[in-house]
Known about the structure:
- The protein is mostly beta strands.
- The protein has strands spanning 3-7, 10-12, 18-25, 34-39, 46-51, 57-59, 67-72, 77-82, 91-96, 108-112.
- It has a six-stranded mixed β-sheet, with no helix packed on it. Strands 1-3-8-7 form a four-stranded antiparallel β-sheet, with no helix packed on it.
Amino acid sequence: xxxxxxxxxxxxxxxxxxxxxxxxxxxxxxxxxxxxxxxxxxxxxxxxxxxxxxxxxxxxxxxxxxxxxxxxxxxxxxxxxxxxxxxxxxxxxxxxxxxxxxxxxxxxxxxxxx
Length: 114
């Protein structure tokens, strides 16, 4: 059974940093691409970043230069390091495979506010 569990969110001031984690189970993690998505209140879910099994990365323009996606195949975990956070980064963050969507996890709330 596929399961995605996100963690690491919280309340942070503008300019601050957070590191999100997502543990995947029920898949051959090392073979799959993974990504991060986010959904702000009243807005559709949007793509944030992705990383392939070959560790090629891609980012939404809004987060380039501030966010870094990485993975640890030994831990079945994908990370999102978020620096220089802005209020507009406030959202619930989710992980998933951008090319083969799995059931969504519960997400982790990120709130950027002073």
